[in-house]
Amino acid sequence: MALAEVSYDMGVFMKFYQKFQYILEMPKMRPSSNWTVPTNINISVTFHHILGVNEKAHILISFLSSRQLWFNDYLVWKPEEFDGIDHLIVPLDFIWIPDFYIWEFVGENISPLMSYAYIHHTGKVICDQPIRAETSCYLDIFFFPFDTQKCLFTFGPYLHTVADITLGVHVSDEQLLSDSLQNLQDRGEWELRQINASIQQFYYQRDEWPMCVFTVKVRRKPTLYLVSLILPSAFLMLIDILSFYLPPHSLDRCAFKVTLLLGYTVFLLMMNNILPNNSGGTPLIGGYFLFCLALLVISLLESIFISYILNGLATQNRTVPQWVKSFVLGYMSQLICYKITDTREHHKKINVFTVGMIKGYEDELTGNREAPGQELEQFLKDTCDKVKDIRNSFEHFHIRSKDAEEWKEVSIVLDIFIFRVYIIFITVCMVCLGIFWSQWLTE
């Protein structure tokens, strides 16, 4: 019984072949009953994998399938004449197929070959071809890793002009995207966001060539780069900000900032291989790293400057200039709401008390000139001279202490002021950077 069915089926196919033999033996002829009427071909694409990008060479690597649909005016039959056969799958060598290619295709074509097409009894022909496409695409990495890329896939014939074929898209843009999202197998670094199809014409040497342009928008997933690049750099900057709370008169602050700067330099060397290299320009994240490095250097210079004031000017017995007192201890201290410790009255009381003591001794000695005992008088005079020397030493010491205290106040006011300006500057820059990168969420 099975052999009879096979024989019967083979007979049906032989009947079909005999009827359409003249068509199947001329596969290179365009299947149009009227040569003045172009053959309409509808195209659609479905993405299965987005394998990656080569930023340096501006190449997008993807795996997709294209479906081409057209009508063959000669391959039309009634299913009841062939025992209900309403469709067939035939080799591509037996029928005419359009000579389509992707204009942006670069590199070697290693796409798998599908040698069959689907034919419906109405004459509709469906040809599906899987394509591993390495296509040229301008990659703008300025907003890396929060970047969105738009790439073109232009399908067009190599020989046929608009006089021979016309192009169309048999599904909507929403359906193209939905089908691709359902068939995407690779959930890697890139995600498919949008597919738009448009029919255009290309003029070359007085001929008009049809083409179907698919605009594909893909968006990078920034999680990996956020964890490995942006957050570590932000943590190092946070540590640098907290280092301002170390005592400014301690040399440990400078040593700590030097160590932090060295660690950040090592971090930049490690992440250098991760950043994309592109002829289109430097990504914004490169400016972010350079900005953080510059802030670390400025922070170290600020600590060196404060240490110089405390350990240099304050120990050189130099008096604080009047303009520094007016600007730093006057205006700037009020601006940052810092209360200056007033030590002038304390020094004045000490000096007055010392001077009063010495004058009292001198008056006592002067009033007792007629007291008996010349040796006692001479002893008291010598004692008075020594007290004067002690008084001068104390006055000099108090002046030096007063200058040192003023230099210390100047360094504290400058340290607080620079720290607050540092915080404000970092906050403004980070907000601007966040606004730039937030555009990724709306694309």
Automatic annotation (TrEMBL):
Keyword Lyase: no
Listed transmembrane segments: 224-246, 258-275, 287-310, 417-437
Species whose genome carries this gene: Erpetoichthys calabaricus (Rope fish)
Keyword field contains Mitochondrion: no
Family of the protein in this entry: Belongs to the ligand-gated ion channel (TC 1.A.9) family. 5-hydroxytryptamine receptor (TC 1.A.9.2) subfamily. HTR3A sub-subfamily.
Keywords noted in UniProt: Cell membrane, Disulfide bond, Glycoprotein, Ion channel, Ion transport, Ligand-gated ion channel, Membrane, Postsynaptic cell membrane, Receptor, Signal, Synapse, Transmembrane, Transmembrane helix, Transport
Membrane topology according to the record: Multi-pass membrane protein
Start and end residues of each Neurotransmitter-gated ion-channel ligand-binding domain: 27-222
Gene: LOC114646703
Domain named Neurotransmitter-gated ion-channel transmembrane: residues: 229-348
Coiled-coil features, chain-numbered ranges: none
Stated name of the protein: 5-hydroxytryptamine receptor 3A
Entries under Gene3D superfamilies matching the protein: Neurotransmitter-gated ion-channel ligand-binding domain, Neurotransmitter-gated ion-channel transmembrane domain
